[in-house]
Amino acid sequence: MSEASSSDQTQEAGHSTPAVRQPHAVLDLPSRRFKGLKIERLLDLANRAQPIRMLEVGTGSGGIAHYFGTHPQLRCEVDAVDVHDNRLVAEGYRYHQVHDTGLPFANQSFDVVLSNHVIEHVGDEQAQRAHLAELRRVVRSDGVGYLAVPNRWMLVEPHYKLVFLSWLPHAWRTQYLRAMGKGEIYDCEPLRLGQLEKLLADAGFRYRNLCVDALRATFEIERPQSAATSVLRSIPDGLLMPWRRIIPTLIYRFWL
Questions:
Q1: Does the reported pTM lie above 0.70?
Q2: Where is pLDDT greater, at 15 or 95?
Q3: Of the four listed, 46, 101, 155, 168, which is most buried by Cβ atoms within 10 Å?
């Protein structure tokens, strides 16, 4: 799991059991620092009561968990889980190996839960619903969550770098992947905006689309002096919001 990994799923004891999906961990640690800072700003964590009990599902390289666990201003107590251990950094947080969408924590354990490019890796819709149900179970009633997932209508699929891969009917995607020599099976399930919002609502979450906020934050953090950032600052939200259905990554804040 994570900008990471998981597996094809079957059901056992109410949770999904992994089979063959491959890890897709992002192992570029500097990019994980930028992502951590973006999440911090989008969730306004500086204004939350501390210490913040935080869970990252699908930690991948461990960079985001490390960012929050060693933050110089925020006091975060961080737990991180994944089905594959691809960590490059282990300091500042507690790591737990998991085997499916089930989480080894008590109900209402966390103030903040992070699902960063995880839900497309856990399996089919049933597994995605199980993932969200577990997030709802472990987040506190006054807690907040962050969820990011590739938009099905992105031009270039980010895991395999193929144009229009996720636009194709599901049954055709693996054939395209093999024809282009990029792999043997397409093991991701990117979502459409309406599809994701229905899953969040069905899980019992309220939510807010952060695509425009995240776009602005990305440019401000990664390219603060660029001409593109200057132009973006001059464009009102009202002109950007209609494009949120085709922004490459769907990003949401959610809460109970």
A1: yes
A2: 95
A3: 101
Within a domain: 180: no
Return the minimum-mean-pLDDT range out of 3-12, 124-133, 141-150: 3-12
* CATH code (residue 124): 3.40.50.150
Is 228 part of a structural domain of the chain? yes
Give, rounded to a whole angstrom, the gap between the first and last alpha carbons of the chain: 23
Higher pLDDT: 21 or 79? It is: 79
Which residue range forms the structural domain that includes residue 241?
A: 9-154+190-255
Q: What pLDDT shows up at residue 22?
A: 67
Share of the chain above pLDDT 90, in %: 79
C-alpha angle 23-29-32 in degrees, rounded to nearest 5? 85
| C-alpha to C-alpha distance for 67 and 48, rounded to whole angstroms | 17
In a domain, residue 177? The reply is no
3-state secondary structure the chain: CCCCCCCCEEEECCEEEECCCCCCCCCCHHHHHHHHHHHHHHCCHHHCCCCEEEEEECCCCCHHHHHHHCCCCCCEEEEEEECCCCCCCCCCCEEEECCCCCCCCCCCCEEEEEEECCHHHCCCHHHHHHHHHHHHHHEEEEEEEEEEEEECCCCEECCCCEECHHHCCHHHHHHHHHHCCCCCCCCCCCECHHHHHHHHHHCCCEEEECHHHHHHHHHHHHCCCCHHHHHHHHCCHHHHHHHCCCCCEEEEEEEC
- Name the domain count of the chain: 1
pLDDT digits (tens, 9 = 90+) for 151-186: 999 999 999 999 999 999 999 999 999 999 999 999
